[in-house]
Amino acid sequence: MRQLLLVTLGSLLLGAAVIWLMQQDQGYILISLGTVSVEMSFWLGALIVFASSCFLIWLLLFFRWLLGAGGVRQWWVARRAEKQTSKAAKGLLDYLSGDWCLASRGLRQSVKDPALSRVSLLFAAKAAANNDQLDQAKQLLKHFSLEFPEYKDYADLLLAEALIQISNIDQAQEILAAVKTENKMTLRLLSDVYCMKSDWSALSALIPKIKRQSVLDEKDLKVLQVNCYRGLLVNIDNNLPAEIKGQKLEVIWSEIPRSFRQIPDILAAYSDGLAATDSSEKALSLLAKALKTNWHQCLVEAYGRLDIKDGTKQLALGEQWLVTYSQDPMLLLALGRICRRMGFLGKAKDYMKSTINLAPSAQVYHELAAILELLGDTASSSDIYRQGLRFATRSKVDKI
Q1: End-to-end alpha carbon distance in the chain
Q2: Residue 399 has what pLDDT?
Q3: Contact at 8 Å (CB) between 81 and 117?
Q4: What is the pTM of this model?
């Protein structure tokens, strides 16, 4: 309030001083241009000059604003940003719809917007990779790494994913090994690489990290673990002596969580491993116990694969199950294989024919033809071979 009073008082004094000066001196200004002359008081001329100067300064400042931070420039920048955002949005929609070509083109055009360039470059590269344009994807990811070196790992992960899609596993593994960021995508891609290379030991070491970071949901994690543990049991070096191989098998089995040991695929793989290390009797006991509580086709098939010197017990137990599961083609196939190994070719033939009646397959036709050949019935054997070939050809056509 005090400052306002001082300003008002100062303005009144200044105005009074100006009026006093105007009264003291009645000088004039004469402007002559050709036949035209303009005469005015000095103070009126001074006022016109002052007003004109203020107007000119205001006009210059207005144009500066119009062409600078606001006005036309601001409108132009906003329009350009809106256009880039629209291209990015259209590119992402094309990406979601699976139109990789349009998505890649639209996203490449939107990289001029600094706010969108990171996302646009990455998705443009991914779209190009999905469209089998790997060279273009590599160029985009290289450009991304140069523009945003702090996010280079993301570019490497996308490149590794593209290489996995075209089964270039070795190069993808090299790239993933150099990635410093161990996030969910890194672990998922590594698990894909290890599965494709059947590197079950490396996958087994990776599984705890996958569980800890919740990379997969419970269902997918269980599938991955089953494949891993089964792979470990199946892929023991066959060139090792049976004793050493058996020791390795038991070590692997002991490291498999108990909750997974009764899963049919894993149990069947362990049974096959025992049979390969001269422990067929143990495998027979294991499968017989498992089938009492969990009748599963995978276990029945493994039971039929067991090659035991004296198959009497194996055959008797299988025929006991036949009372309950007389219409199970896998059990009939297993009994046919056991009978063939034991030399009971007539029974083996009957079991194979029953299997064909219930669930024909090229494999069963081949087994029956081989048995007929052993029986000396070459004509029937050749006919069954032809039927199996026709069945296999028809099955392939139906799948196509």
Answers
A1: 93
A2: 54
A3: no
A4: 0.71
